[in-house]
């Protein structure tokens, strides 16, 4: 469903459909049924959307799919929510996610696993799982998500939709419950690239409440889609041996687009995931130290304040979150800081500078968004090519704008390609993606 | 690789972060830690890291302009306590610290 097609949706019908889909896919934490049409005009007026449950919504339950926040009602709206409200877009629900954004399976929300609409024996991908499902099932034309490692772009690939995270700071994160602040991005799911430009033009911009935002007033994503550039792209040779991806490259080359393999030190590629694990675990350990139950969320039991906090966190954090916190604690131990945490930050620089230098020669980096179709739940522990499966982390390390678009179906399950450009070149990124989308001409899952 | 970790070390990491691990959770993390450390060490396979400046932000924030201080209304007491579980008058109620 496109944004234009969603303009005349009957709100009662959408609520009925949301409840129906909730029974089938368990994609919501909260369905917002108290909604009505407005008299506003503009491209997003009366367009329904969903938002991941880690965006603060005034007077509406916001849990980040965690028991630690199961009763938390924010007293303010995130900046992106305020902007969409003021444009007359209609938020119909808060979507389930991996708890606090930690995970890529969609199985760890406090409300239970989110179901893959194409094959219930497989994960939906995550952490923005419910958001991806809401767009993939054509319930809404767009959804807000967040992306710290690949949490928008990977589930988008698995479910055959478009997933975009912008340059770090293009869209305000004020009101987003943080995971790892130096890696967190706000982004969107849509069914097509044009709609990404339409939504993001309306939610980007400087925000005095988020000092990482930058002035993008001269960046017009939508109007920049018109004149196609003929891009020169590269892919990472060591990670490019994926049959569906090679097919896409052939297709692009047949239209005159240049795509060249570039070799990158395998040691650096193998370090992608551990670098992410070190940095994100350390940052999230610190960011989530406020989940004590004292000021919000509920309260633990104990004879001292400390005991109450321990009780609250012990009972309400899931095992995966605790695991990541323990890793965070490990890398931040005095004796480990230099060896792990600071060296991870050094490797991050090497990766970012390496890719950034290549953007002097090439317009963009094109990669398979995954090594294949979405995994089965029971195969989650199987060995994978870690560097390939985690290549999207590059976009978070450098804050590069990055988008996944559907590429093909394998056994009637979608796979996607990912495109990444230099920072603040979001307009170029969407222009190229718009072009590639037309060439690939993906028809959806039958 | 030998496991340098013990149940007690893992528990200490957890306790420093104000939570406890069940026996099962501890065993899970403990078993995984050899693997975690091995993977973390992939970082240290990269030569000459010590000469690289650690990166803590995706790119330099070179256009941050701090505004003048502006007087604003702060959060109301009612709003501040809206999500607190136990509130007495204008304070969150917790166990007495001083006898």
Characterization of the model:
The complex is a heterodimer of chains A (446) and B (99). Chain A is of the alpha/beta class. Chain A has a domain at 5-229 and 370-440: Alpha-Beta Complex (Amidase signature (AS) enzymes). Chain A has helices spanning 11-25, 79-86, 129-136, 153-159, 193-203, 243-253, 266-270, 272-287, 305-316, 319-332, 334-358, 386-389, 393-398, 426-440; strands spanning 28-31, 48-52, 90-95, 142-147, 162-165, 185-190, 232-236, 258-262, 364-368, 402-410, 413-420. Chain A is globular, with a radius of gyration of 21 Å. The mean pLDDT of chain A is 96. Chain B is mainly alpha-helical and 99 residues long. Chain B has a domain at 1-52. Helices cover 33% and strands 4% of the residues of chain B. Chain B is flat, with a radius of gyration of 23 Å. The mean pLDDT of chain B is 87. Chains A and B meet through helix 7, helix 8, helix 9, helix 10 and helix 11 of A and helix 1 and helix 2 of B.
Note the topology:
The complex is a heterodimer of chains A (446) and B (99).
Chain A: H1 11-25, E1 28-31, E2 48-52, H2 79-86, E3 90-95, H3 129-136, E4 142-147, H4 153-159, E5 162-165, E6 185-190, H5 193-203, E7 232-236, H6 243-253, E8 258-262, H7 266-270, H8 272-287, H9 305-316, H10 319-332, H11 334-358, E9 364-368, H12 386-389, H13 393-398, E10 402-410, E11 413-420, H14 426-440
Parallel strand pairs in A: 2-3, 2-4, 7-8, 7-9
Antiparallel strand pairs in A: 1-3, 4-6, 5-6, 5-10, 9-11, 10-11
Chain B: H1 7-16, H2 23-40, H3 77-81, E1 87-88, E2 91-92
Antiparallel strand pairs in B: 1-2
End-to-end distance of chain B, in Å? 51 Å
Provide the succession of SSEs of chain A: HEEHEHEHEEHEHEHHHHHEHHEEH
Largest sheet of chain A: 11 strands, mixed
What sequence of helices (H) and strands (E) makes up the elements of chain B? HHHEE
Helix tally of chain B equals: 3
Task: Provide the β-strand percentage band of chain B.
Answer: under 5%
Biggest interchain interface, per-side counts? A-B, 73 and 49 residues
């Amino acid at each position: 469903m496109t944004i234009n097609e969603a303009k005349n949706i009957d709100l009662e019908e959408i609520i009925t459909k949301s409840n129906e889909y909730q029974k089938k896919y368990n994609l919501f934490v909260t369905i917002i049924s108290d909604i009505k049409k407005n008299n506003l005009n503009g491209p997003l007026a009366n367009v329904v959307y969903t938002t991941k449950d880690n965006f603060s919504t005034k007077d509406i339950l916001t849990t980040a799919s965690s028991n630690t926040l199961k009763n938390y009602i924010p007293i303010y709206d995130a900046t992106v929510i305020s902007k969409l409200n003021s444009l007359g877009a209609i938020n119909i629900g808060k979507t389930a996610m991996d708890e606090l954004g930690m995970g890529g399976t969609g199985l760890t929300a406090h409300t239970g696993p989110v179901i893959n609409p194409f094959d219930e024996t497989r994960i939906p991908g995550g952490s923005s799982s419910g958001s991806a499902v809401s767009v993939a099932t054509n319930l809404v034309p767009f959804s807000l998500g967040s992306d710290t490692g690949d949490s928008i772009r990977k589930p988008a690939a698995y479910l055959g939709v478009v997933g975009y995270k912008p340059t770090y700071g293009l869209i305000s994160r004020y009101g987003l419950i943080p995971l790892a602040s130096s890696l967190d991005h706000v982004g969107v799911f849509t069914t097509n690239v044009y709609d990404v430009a339409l939504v993001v033009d309306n939610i980007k911009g400087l925000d005095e409440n988020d000092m990482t935002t930058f002035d993008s007033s001269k960046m017009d994503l939508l109007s920049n889609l018109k004149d196609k550039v003929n891009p020169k792209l590269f892919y990472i040779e060591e990670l490019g041996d994926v049959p569906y991806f090679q097919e896409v490259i052939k297709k692009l080359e047949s239209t005159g687009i240049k795509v060249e393999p570039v070799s990158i030190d395998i040691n650096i590629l193998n370090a992608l995931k551990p670098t992410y694990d070190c940095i994100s675990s350390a940052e999230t350990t610190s960011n989530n130290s406020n989940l004590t139950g004292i000021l919000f969320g509920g309260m633990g039991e104990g004879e001292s304040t400390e005991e109450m906090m321990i009780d609250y966190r012990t009972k309400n954090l899931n095992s995966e979150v605790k695991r990541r916190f323990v890793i965070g604690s490990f890398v931040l131990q005095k004796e480990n800081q230099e060896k792990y945490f600071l060296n991870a930050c050094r490797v991050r620089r090497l990766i970012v500078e390496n890719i950034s230098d290549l953007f002097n020669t090439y317009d963009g980096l094109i990669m398979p968004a995954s090594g294949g179709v979405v995994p089965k739940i029971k195969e989650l522990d199987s060995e994978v090519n870690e560097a390939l499966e985690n290549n999207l982390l590059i976009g978070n390390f450098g804050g590069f704008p990055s988008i996944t678009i559907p590429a093909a179906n394998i056994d009637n399950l979608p796979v996607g390609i990912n495109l990444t450009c230099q920072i603040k070149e979001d307009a170029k990124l969407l222009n190229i993606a718009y072009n590639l989308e037309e060439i690939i001409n993906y028809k959806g899952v039958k | 690789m030998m496991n340098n970790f013990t149940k007690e070390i893992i528990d200490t990491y957890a306790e420093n972060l104000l939570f406890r691990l069940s026996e099962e959770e501890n065993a899970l993390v403990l078993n995984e830690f050899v693997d975690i450390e091995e993977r973390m060490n992939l970082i240290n396979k990269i030569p000459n890291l010590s000469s690289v400046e650690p990166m803590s932000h995706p790119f330099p924030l070179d256009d941050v302009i701090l505004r003048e201080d502006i007087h604003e209304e702060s959060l109301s007491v009612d709003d501040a306590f809206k999500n607190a579980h136990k509130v007495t008058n204008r304070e969150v109620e917790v166990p007495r610290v001083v006898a």
